[in-house]
Amino acid sequence: MDLFQTLANTAGKPEGLDARLARTVLDDVDFAMRASIAELAERAGVSAPSVTRFSRRIGCAGYPDFKVKLAQMAYVGLRYLKPEVTSTTPAEVAEDIVTKAQDALFRFHRQVDLAAMERAAQLLRGADFIQAVGAGGNSSMIAGELHNRLFRLGLRVHSSNDLTMSLMQASAATEGTVTIVSSMTGIDATLVRCVELLGQQGLPTIALTQSGSPLAKAASVVITIDLPEGQNIFRPSSTRFAYLAAVDVLANLVAYADRATSLQTLRRVKAELVRSRDGDDRQLLGD
Question: Could you list the residue ranges that cross the membrane (predicted)?
Answer without folding.
Answer: none
